[in-house]
Fold:
Amino acid sequence: MDAARLDPGPGIRNGAQYLAGLRDGREVWLHGRRVTDVTAEPSLGRGAHTLAGFLDRQSDPPNFERLTYVENGRRFAMSFLIPRLQADVARRGAAFYEWATWSHGMFGRTPDYKNASVMAFAAAADFLAQGKAEFADNMRRYYEYVRSNDKVLTHTLVNPTFNHAQAKEGKYSDKVALQVVRETDAGLVVSGARLLATLGPHADEIEVFPSTLLTASPENLPFAFAFAMPVATPGIRLICRDSYDHGQSHYDAPLASRFEEMDAVVIFKDVLVPWERVFMYREPLLCNRAFAETNAVVHMMHQVVCGKLAKAEFIVGLLCAMARATGKDKDMEVKGQIAEAMWIAEMVRAFRYAAEGQAHADQRGNWLPLRRPLDTSRNLFPKLYPRLVELVQLLGSSSLMAIPCEADFDNDLAQDVGQYFQTLNLGSRDRIALFRLAHDVAISAFGNRQALYERFFFGPQNIMASIYFDLYDKEAMMERVDSLLRAN
Ligand SMILES: Cc1cc2nc3c(=O)[nH]c(=O)nc-3n(C[C@H](O)[C@H](O)[C@H](O)COP(=O)(O)OP(=O)(O)OC[C@H]3O[C@@H](n4cnc5c(N)ncnc54)[C@H](O)[C@@H]3O)c2cc1C
Structure:
């Protein structure tokens, strides 16, 4: 069967169906060799099984009401729901949040993130028709395909920087960047590299969209496009970073052993993209406007704020548990330290509810959470998450290093470990488990990658900040300043 076909499916999938779909001959490279089956590969498989477990939860009938919706007799993930009513925005937010709690926000790229974007593009497909009428139909068909087959998507938006000055001018190097090398009757042929597909090895489909700004020069036309392809397309090759799942037990690596979502550079070698999978082409300025004018960025930010809330809450819980272990939770100084994490969590909660509570109809009559609180959150959280990590380090100190492994409870060290690692409120086994978790948040390679992810996954902070500045409604505030000066 042609994997690029867009046949509709029956609706939500369970974990076993998802895992079966990943055994499709995709070209994934890890640790110097090609992976034959990502679901069975020791340092990739557990991440896939975690995601399968999430899809099983979504497929569990008691959860249907909260996590799915029914349309024309088929059941779909809530993240595909086009919000036609104000209440739909809150329903979507509740489902995003619940998904995020399953990983405590540590599996950042659950499928609802990309589903939110595909939903938004399909609901605003008229925008794509400005390029070509067929592109709008392609997107509507693609949305139907993705939601009715409950496909898991990744995306890759960024060309590798070859020359910073050139990139700053909105141009790309034909030596490295993904570009159209040929057009045929069947579609576009593309070659080059893209950064960075989080979840790539575990995804069914990869969206290749524009995000970095392109100037409308003739030499940019081959770089201006949007399309989506199955990961298992011949010519698509994923080059993974080192895995942070080192095969340790859940006790030893509580996060890395569960939530390794993997990031991969994506190489395209003469990949044929059928026309029905193309959504934009040779329109740099349209590409630049796409995420904003379809509201995809707002719906994605909505998923993100709900996930960051779950993550910040988890760190608060962790800090409180760490403090309680030795009775530090009775100390005024320590309470004050942890209160800072609580403020961060409450700030994110306020952003979420401010956006949902002020949801409004968009230009097409669909409902949209208010952009500004979400945008504020996406600009602040990349700066606040590293502070949360720092708070774990400051409170944890040497306890983050005093972490024998699970095997030490069964070897010659067992008596020492049982004796010398206890604290006022925790026996050794529970104390070590807690601080191994803190280590996985704040010290391990897994934890450090989380911090890097928060800093960058939505784009460079300076560019997001400058967009924020441009969109901010400044006039009334400046007018107040002017009026005071006029009164001088
Ligand atoms: C863990 C992780 C996961 C990611 N997952 C994905 C994903 O799934 N899909 C995806 O598409 N992308 C993903 N990304 C990539 C992310 O979008 C980029 O990292 C981000 O857009 C920054 O681009 P860059 O990495 O090329 O860095 P650069 O553009 O090189 O920026 C790095 C630094 O250079 C400076 N700089 C860059 N541009 C300018 C400028 N114009 N003016 C002034 N200074 C500048 C800034 O100091 C900036 O912080 C991921 C990144 C990480 C780290």
Q: What stands out?
A: Residues 154-158, 161, 168, 195-198, 263, 449, 452-453, 456-457, 459-460, 462 surround flavin-adenine dinucleotide (CB under 6 Å). The mean pLDDT is 96.
